[in-house]
Amino acid sequence: MSARYGMVIDLDRCTGCGACMVACAAENNVPALPPKATDRTGITPMLVHKVSNGQEGAEFREAFIPVTCMQCEHETPCVAVCPQQAVQVDPATGIVMQMPQRCLGCRYCMTACPYHARYFNWWDPAWPPGMEKTLNPGVSVRMRGVVEKCNGCHARLHAAQEKAAAAGNREIDPRDYRPACAEACATGAIQFGNLADESDPVSQAAHSTNAFRLLERLGTEPKIFYTSDRPWVRQLAEPHPARGDKEVKHG
Amino acid sequence: MTRISLTFGLGLATALAAGWFAFPYALYVRRAEPLDFRHKAHAEKSGVSQCTDCHALRDDGSFAGIPQADVCAPCHNESMGKRNWLVNFRQPANVWFSHAIHMRRAKLDCATCHGPYGESAQPVAYQQDRISGYSRQVMDMNTCEKCHRERKVEVGCLGCHK
Amino acid sequence: MELTRRDLLTWGGGATAGLLLTPLPWKVLDDTSKWTQNWPWIPQPSRAPIEVKRSFCTLCPNGCDLRVRVASGTPVGVSPGPQSALCPLAFGAHQLNWHPGRLRQVSHLGKAASWNDALAAFRKAAVEGPIAVVDAYPRRAGSSVMENFARRQGGTYCIILSAEERSLAPYAAWSGAPVTSLGYDFEHARTILSFGAPLLDGWGAPGRVPRLWSTGALKLIQVEPSLSRTANAAWRWIQVPSGSEAALAAGLARVLLEEHISPARAPLPPTTVAEAAAQTGIAEETIRELARTLAAHGPAVAIAADGDPAVAVLNFAVGSIGARGGIVRRREGGPSYLTADNLNGHFRAVLIDATVPWDFAPQADAEVFRFAAWNGGGSRAHWLLPAPGFLEELTDVPTAPGSAVDTYAIAANLSTPPADVRSPAGFLAQVDSALPSVEDIIHARCRELFRTHTGALQGEETVPVSRFAAPERLEEALRTGSVWVAGPPRSGGLRCRFEQWPQPTAPRATADWTATWVPPVLPPLAVKLYRESSLREPPAGRSI
After folding, report:
1. What is the predicted ipTM?
2. Please, which residues bridge with residue C71 across strands?
């Protein structure tokens, strides 16, 4: 039985602390880049964007939007353009699998991704002496010249699959597979689950009328859903040119 | 025979000999294991009959691989287990192979992939490829794909890689 | 027969054709591609098996519980334990022990020295005059050793209060109870009025108020001059100019008392509501509405982040002193500690624990022995002594500051420390051999817990203490990640009195997002938050 893993992120409960970003980097052996790195050359498979309501003074408010690979299901842009077939949608899980070992670094996928969710290794990864012992054994280390992105914390899926197999079960226990970002979120804003399982509360939340996705009009059918009761946040996330809404500005 | 065909033929013969004989000989460097471990002798003397008696799955499903000192300790005085074994089947760092899935789900016999290693009287000589650094015996991706194709088990890239 | 160039060329042609009929070109190509996958300068993770262990974070006094994945003595991943949530910095903390700023060698006035040199100097100082000991994470077993030492030596042990405890200082002054025995009962509050406390972003454990807030059961009102993350997420943000918080507190108290909606009795503040409105720029009607919310949506509690008594006094009118959902006293008795800013007298030397913030400056003429795991740079300490880092030593976890119930846990050491580090407790034991060891103190504390028969151990299940057969079983459960939790505080346990409406104190500078983080260096992965993204501001005045 195949799964479709996705997330529902409650933007009203995201306080912008950034725990998900650090947990993601730690889980995926992403190095802390040297001081010459910037927010354009950095590697942040989970990236929390800060947006504001454009008001002044006491009415000014911000919102935080955690963005990872959207795990697009329909005409996945990065898969369509890759000359190496280094990225593939896994039919068993719905996760868009990026294979750094096959990547030749043309960065076509980075151009194709509408969510800017892909990152290039401009430099070879380096850790201070001894720190490489703290690397997560479940995730391979990438060298410079390849693109990487959120892989749905595949090491954790592997561990869950292995545990299930050892116990003689066909399916994994959903409690054993929880990506680092969802686990790190102190307020529970990030919820991860199987969208194909109707009994999964995440699936129910994703299918509710309250949930929206970023850039839905592009038709990539992302599997990362967002909810918010704040109209200005919903409006920012899905601007309608016909309404004269301005495109979202970062930072 | 014309001179051209003679020289051409010589070239051909040289290349064939180099490619089929000299190259495989020179490509691999033989390295000695830290210990001359003989599976057959152990099976006969200590009464272990299954591979999994020493090479087992841990509680979390991961594979224990080559036994550590604690497995050898009941019979051997000296520290036998903690050695830098040259592992013939060691896969690259970016490969994730789950013994649990292949043993329990696919119900594969150890010999299917490893051959009748457990009955071997002598360890297989470790031959290391000088260019790639891997053992001559290591299972390459084509073999994995072949078996998966035959048994119609589809896995995506990250099903085997990490 | 002479060999000509043509011979060579035809031979070459034959060889090329022949090579293509051998595996050589394909194997060389394939092997070369594998060779390019394994550059030796790209680090590889360990192949050792991973064990999941439980422990507690020791980098700030909140002591959040952790699940740590460990591969051959080195942590390879940090996750929250079942009871907690972690701050962003905790997820990179397992890499801290290899931070370039890690202190690995004793140094004296900038030059390398040995532990024996340091011991000799310390023993000499101990003989020549009293020694002050400064500890920013009191009530640990190691703290007890330091306290013991100071008492036996004729010196003074003092503590530095955490931000949460500083906010409780007024109630300690009004009740005579030690500030370290007080807490906020947020778990039963329905409204929190926070004057500048970053409750959702760096105040108290991340798994405490953020979790309560995210359930929607808690109304958070944030009073602050500028929009912090807490103010941004709060139910209401009340923007007041810095310094006028006391006026707002007074105005709210006045409404509560004048309109008889306060559950308690208290003298009227000197400020009228109109005056409060004028000073804060908040409309009178808004102040009244706010006060009514506090009364209607109780239990409510106010927090004066910088411990300003003129703000804390509002809690009398709110009725939260000693009440459920308000300011509570965890237990009777308990020691009262001298704080470092009240340290008077002349000391021959000062011993500073690794938990003390890097910018702490002791008195000018004492010889300073500074324990630290990481070097923040520019230290004026005479002796820099390398201390154990993250999860490198066995220690215990006393009640988190500001907690409403007493708790106790033991933080197992999961990471192999470098050869030459020593904790203050270990160091002092070599100076005064009569001091107990940290392990002895932990054993004793477990025996005491067992003897009291109160509370329960929360682990996979909750087990009352009375069901443990022996103190060793209890200690074993604690060492594997359970937490002892006391019963709830009895209400009415805290009684405060004040004579006159307090004067406001000067406001503290607003802290940045790294303020509660004690080590002078951040975990390397923190750069994701401010350098490789624009989520946060770069940390102020801290080496990265």
Report:
1. 0.94
2. C50, C74
* Other beta carbons less than 10 A from residue C176's beta carbon: 10
* CB-based burial label for C470 (10 Å; 0-12, 13-18, 19+): exposed
Contacts of A99 in chain C (CB under 8 A): none
Per-residue pLDDT at C313: 94
The answer to whether the CB atoms of A154 and B162 lie below 8 A apart is yes
Measure Cα distances from B86 to B43, B124, B140, C419 in Å.
21, 11, 17, 30
The shortest C-alpha distance from B132 to chain C (Å) reads 5
Is-contact C496 C312, C-beta < 8 A? Answer: no
Helix (H, G, I), strand (E, B), or coil: what is residue C304? strand
CB C384 within 8 A of CB C370: yes
Beta bridge partners of A49: A65
Please name the residue that has the structure tokens 């070992």: A101
Residue A92: list chain B partners with CB under 8 A. Answer: 154-156, 159
Cα–Cα distance measured from residue A39 to residue B113, given in angstroms and rounded to the nearest whole number: 47
CATH annotation of A5-243? 3.30.70.20
pLDDT tier at B43, thresholds 50, 70, 90: confident
Contacts of A101 in chain B (CB under 8 A): 94, 161
Q: pTM of the predicted model, to two decimals?
A: 0.94
Tell whether B116 lies on the interface with C, counting CB pairs under 8 A: no
- List own/partner pairs for A207-211 with CB under 8 A and 24 or more apart: A211/A8
Question: Is the Cβ of A167 closer than 8 Å to some Cβ of chain B?
Answer: yes
Burial call C242-266: b when 16+ CB within 10 Å, e when fewer: eebbbbbbbbbbbbbbeeebbeeeb
- Report H helices in C341-437: 424-431
Instruction: Tell me the one-letter amino acid at A82.
Output: C
Instruction: Name the DSSP class of B57.
Output: B
What pairs with residue C158 in β-bridges? C134, C338
Which CA distances in Å does A135 have to A101, C153, C200, C224, C470?
18, 45, 30, 41, 40
| Calpha distance C542→C520 (Å, rounded) | 6
Mean pLDDT of C70-90: 93
Pairing mode of beta strands C367-372, C349-352: parallel
